[in-house]
Write a structure and sequence with these properties.
Beta Polymerase, domain 2, single chain, 9 strands
């Protein structure tokens, strides 16, 4: 009786779990997990091209499209960057997210030979994070200006940036110069520093008029 109850309580693996087990058999995949009902696989950086080619060409997977490539910065880690690849199989209606890690100087193999459209996203990851892609023939900035300094989505990049671009009326041209704040930070004297703002600065007279009307 106990064996029958245990058998009844066993839940068959989900489609995502079965897909994860199949992907885990690909050489270069180091692990997989399901997060928020999405399949995530980790891959070894040096095996990335073989992994992506297998995920595209193996009929069990048929990930014909890379939908997005992006970076994530974890500055406290030795390999501070995740490079995230979101893949889609149109024919099998399934998705997987593949992640590799790297640091600021170690290149990640470009997958533009697997999916030519990857060039756009690899350029974006280089521009915003400084992630290097080896074998990428067109690693140029794509969102910031060619003269831009630094990579603005790194966690240690200042919110103000390093330089600002403006049109100089006297010189009649666009110029670059170090960032300078044109206005000091203002401090507002609200009714209580421990409560949310209840009165916009300049509107205190409304309460004064109401108090006078109440007296009258």
């Amino acid at each position: 009786m106990a064996e029958e109850t245990a058998a009844a309580e066993q839940v068959p693996p989900s489609a995502l779990e079965l897909l994860g087990q199949a992907i885990a058999s690909v050489s270069g995949i180091t692990g997989y997990r399901i997060e928020s009902n999405e399949l995530v696989a980790d891959a070894a950086r040096d095996s990335l091209l073989d992994v992506m080619t297998a995920l595209r060409d193996d009929p069990r997977f048929s990930f014909e499209q890379v939908m997005d490539i992006c970076g994530v910065d974890w500055p406290d880690r030795v390999e501070r960057f995740d490079v995230v690849y979101n893949l889609l199989s149109v024919s099998l209606n399934q998705r997987v997210r593949v992640i590799v890690t790297t640091d600021a100087v170690t290149p990640v193999p470009s997958v533009h030979t697997v999916w030519p459209v990857a060039t756009w996203w690899e350029r974006e990851a280089w521009d915003l994070f400084g992630i290097i892609f080896s074998g990428q023939p067109d690693l140029r900035r794509i969102l910031t200006d060619y003269g831009f300094e630094g990579h603005p989505l790194r966690k240690d990049f200042p919110m103000t940036g390093y330089v600002e671009v403006r049109f100089d009326e006297d010189r009649k041209q666009v110029i670059y110069e170090p960032v300078k704040l044109t206005q000091d930070f203002r401090s507002f004297d609200f009714l209580s520093p421990w409560e949310a703002m209840t009165t916009l600065p300049g509107d205190e007279k409304v309460f004064t008029e109401r108090a006078e009307q109440a007296k009258g």
